Amino acid sequence: MGIPFHSIDNQSFRQLVEAIGQFGPGYKHPSQYLLREPLLKQEVERTKFSLKKHEEEWMENGCSIMTDARTDRKKRSIMNICINCKLGTSFLGSIEESMEAHTGVYIFEFVEKYIIEIGPQHIVQVVTDNATKNMAAVDLLKVTQPQIFWTSCATHTINLMLEATGKLLKFSGILEKAKALTIFIYAHHRTLAIMWKYTKKSDIVRPGVTRFATSFLTLESLKDKKDQLRLMFTSDEWRKTKLRSSVKGKSAEATVTSISFWNGVSLALNVFTLLVKVLRLVDGDKKPSMAFLLGALKQAKEDIKKSFKKQENAIPILKIIDEKSKGRLDSPLHYVAYLLNPFFYFKDSSISNDTNVMNEFLNCVEIIFATDEEMQSTIANDELLKYNSKSENFGRKMAVAAYEKVDVYHDFDPVGWWSNYGGDTPNLQKMAMRFRSLTSSSSGCERNWIQFEEIHTKKRNRLETSRLNDLVYVKFNANLVKKRE
Q1: Would you call 72 helix, strand, or coil by DSSP?
Q2: pLDDT value at residue 207
């Protein structure tokens, strides 16, 4: 009832018309007041009820809180907050912060309000981007909620890796030439018409969610249309244009006919594709990604080495990955999730000998069970040893086959594996189940801005913040429930 009419999809629109039709010709539509106040509040309550399964999942296996801020069409600074569990990301609420300084204290107080509302015992982590103001709230959280971790957004971090890699000398020239080529083609209707003729109306510019994603997708598109572009710049149509003799025209033709340019495009894609693969893993909502992040990143580093004939040429890229990961993708949660994923742990013996992994596991146990030394000892000195040695159910043939017969890491279900075979180590099993169900990014919270933009249009830009919050709550969460069903 509170969803803006123009944002209803076709199926919902048909259902709405059918429902109205059932009342017959005498039906009187509700007043604007009823739609904006009591009926909207009823819809908010109904939506809350539909999220009961999500609440049950929070209580069973824990959840993550995510927050993000943005300026809306009225130049109001709005911070929103979402909650993620294995069933998906749901919207909790938002606050207008135009009159407040964006300090770590302010962000901390906003987040802690929802932590207390949900219950600190159900929350494993808070995920934000890497902005300084967000990081400033970490120390405050450690004081009041020491058992809750504050984690950097993996999507944001990997985007930083890609951008820094794109600035390396061996890649920056290729990206600049590709950019100049596409700008030249799209800047002139004649060149665009010729390109469309040879690509059969297919474009070479493919927009992405970030500036680098757009550059990467455009490189992919250029490579796919390499032969068509070469035909274009050797065609009679091109020879007859005055643009061919211009400085930019000569540069575009030289780029397309250059063997070294296309070799550079292939090399760039070989490297970028490996990191983009990890980006897509952590940026998606299909399954929790914390269990796979470090293993996927390690595999990407190994494959990057193999993409160069001389492995020393990969060193600058690997250095960027390590530098961007430091302080962002090396929290106790990341290492414990890596350690307790049998797909990686039992296929790579070096993990058990990695000092960082083991130290962070012990740190994590001490943080979670800070007041229970007996539990700390049970997990570290008994249950972890059983897992490490594959004793009891961990050593069953079917348990081993579950991860050995899977070639691709994201096809493996670590939560199901621990549910089936972790019964002999109940405390470690509970830890694994909670950490396996975690997201590693705040992307779901960022995607929620789409709902804000659909509702807060130019025609509806006088919406009060509270009503905007309720409308977004209904629309975003209704889509989640519909997707789940």
Answers
A1: coil
A2: 72
